[in-house]
């Protein structure tokens, strides 16, 4: 009886071996990539937070093309980061001895580049940034003008930028509930972490000047949880491709042959989507905190 059982076990192992070997040899590249991981978020001891743009595409997943609403949302997100960059740039000029403004301004430029990486990944054509302090959207233009006018002293400038980060934390936290695209979710999650770190950085500067910052947008509970927590650091993400997985393999092959079948979407400087792969433009979503038009009160 034992001999028969042993023979059966040997035969079973012989039958399953070819299938196991086939699985192991089917995609050696993916096996190699599966053990690799990259960090996207970086924060220094002051809380200045950047994204490693070279690591963004390799950790992104292959997804469906972007909808009109998703394209408009990414553009609105870029305009919000431009708003933060332009405000900190203006304050860095007004208060040259305050190094955090200059450093965070550079970090906000990095965030803009990260968003543009995602747009480029999906082969979306988008306009160049307007000049510093200039916005095609009237809502953001008014916000910029108002924030600059409030920064009449170094203390008030820190309060203004802390308030701006509060708004970003609130808006990004809300919009995460509506994001369905995994790559957009990855981007928003990292920008949210950066906003929390920058809020802490501004509050620390105010504390060093014996000023206690009172939250304006966030609840006291959420604000305290952010302020008392360590600076958010980057997680490890699995690499999905040697150079990132393009969403359109035909486009990739044509590009390698010096050909192109055009962009997969386009957005103008007013944040209006005028072309998508699906042919559904402009976007239909409206309402603050939603993916698409109306994000944070924009067009």
From TrEMBL:
Database matches in InterPro entries: DUF2202, Ferritin-like, Ferritin-like_SF
All residue ranges annotated as the DUF2202 domain in the record: 70-229
Domain of life: Bacteria
Annotated spans, Disordered: 278-299
Keywords: Signal
Signal peptide boundaries: 1-21
Protein name, entry field: DUF2202 domain-containing protein
């Amino acid at each position: 009886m034992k001999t028969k059982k042993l023979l059966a076990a040997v035969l079973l192992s012989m039958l399953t071996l070819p299938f196991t070997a086939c699985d192991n040899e089917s995609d050696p590249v993916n096996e190699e990539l599966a053990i690799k991981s990259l960090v996207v978020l970086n924060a220094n001891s002051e809380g200045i937070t950047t994204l490693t743009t070279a690591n963004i595409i390799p950790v992104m997943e292959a997804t469906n093309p972007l909808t009109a609403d998703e394209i408009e949302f990414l553009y609105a997100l870029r305009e919000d980061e431009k708003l933060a960059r332009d405000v900190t740039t203006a304050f860095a000029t007004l208060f040259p001895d305050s190094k955090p403004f200059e450093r965070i301004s550079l970090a906000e430029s990095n965030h803009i580049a990260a968003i543009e990486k995602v747009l480029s990944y999906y082969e979306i054509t988008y306009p160049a940034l307007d000049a510093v302090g200039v916005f095609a959207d009237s809502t953001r233009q008014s916000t910029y003008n108002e924030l600059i006018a409030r920064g009449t002293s170094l203390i008030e400038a820190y309060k203004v930028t802390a308030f701006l980060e509060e708004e970003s934390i609130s808006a990004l936290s809300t919009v995460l509930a509506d994001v369905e695209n995994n790559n957009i979710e990855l981007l928003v999650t990292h920008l949210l972490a950066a906003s929390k770190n920058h809020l802490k950085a501004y509050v620390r500067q105010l504390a060093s000047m014996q000023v206690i910052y009172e939250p304006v947008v966030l609840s006291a509970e959420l604000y305290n949880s952010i302020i008392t927590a360590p600076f958010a650091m980057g997680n490890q993400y699995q690499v999905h491709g040697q150079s990132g997985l393009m969403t359109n393999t035909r486009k990739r092959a044509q590009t390698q042959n010096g050909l192109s079948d055009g962009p997969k979407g386009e957005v103008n400087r007013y944040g209006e989507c005028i072309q998508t792969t699906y042919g559904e433009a402009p976007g239909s979503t409206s309402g603050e905190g939603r993916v698409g038009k109306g994000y944070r009160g924009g067009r």
